[in-house]
Amino acid sequence: MPGEFSLIDAIARRAAARADVVLGIGDDAALLAVPAGRQLVVAMDTLNAGVHFPDDTAPADIGWKALAVNLSDLAAMGAQPAWCTLSLSLPGPDAAWVDGFLGGFLSLAALHGVALVGGDTTRGPLSVCVTAHGLVEPGRARRRDGARVGDDVWVTGTPGDAGGALAQWRAGGTRDAALRARLDRPTPRIEAGLALAGVAHAAIDVSDGLLADLGHVCAASGVGAQIELETLPASPMLAAAFDPEQRRVLQCTGGDDYELCFTVAQERREDIAAVAEACGVAMTRIGHIVAGDDVVALDRDGRRWVPPRRGFEHFAD
Ligand code: ADP
Ligand code: MG
Question: Which string of DSSP letters, residue by residue, matches 290-312?
Fold first, then answer.
């Protein structure tokens, strides 16, 4: 049976280098060369077994997702990812599990040139905590508090897919593998997040549900929002698997999509089309920012639609 240190050795052997990592895994702390004239952007997210992923999730998918949810936060801020750390709590010293986990984690890290520079390995219920570190030019980070009345509200990709996969998993009937892939392997919208610098006024990544997350932007910005439900872009697989009302609930309140929701001045619609084209990511205008403090969803006839719940919240029940 491997111990803590042979697991750490296995991790250290596979972690890729980066020129600005002065000292990586192996000392008491990592030493990183932050480039002159850049601000450091730091995000942390935890995945707990049974809370953040279904029990049957493959180790490689858990690895991918643990990093993806953190890179997604950097994408929302408009940061360029650079480094990460990884705290692993494992029920036992399962080298095969760690190997699979690293496969997913490090393949996503390699896609974005992110170096794993340290972490912690402990015994306990399965839990994965990652911090991601990114870089941004001073003053250029995109915050939640920048939305302005009159801005359009946009979303990347097709929200609702991850929630659809979770609903199918819970129901135990038909399970669409393509939907499940959207739950297990979310795509952090890093390129889009960078390309929207200087264009989007505010952004958030959709982790708890579109209406709830847009609500956070509105609260931080002191504004309200109106969403036109008919404009919400649904993937063909979501549309095929759920009736229109279920789909609406999933698209508005389903978490785990890790798409970006952002606000942009109306005059810049063509710029967004160009960014979407350049990044190869669909961007859809779904509503606009209004005076007030409420996020209102309107149906085709202009009637207000209230979802059964706004989005995911820990400790809510
Ligand atoms: P310490 O007791 O001084 O905190 P550890 O034995 O916990 O040191 O860690 C030794 C080295 O291995 C450190 O550089 C630490 O960052 C790294 N490390 C430990 N666990 C992980 C992990 N899960 N992923 C990446 N690096 C890790
Ligand atoms: Mg130490």
Answer: ESSS-EEEE-TTS-EE--S--S-
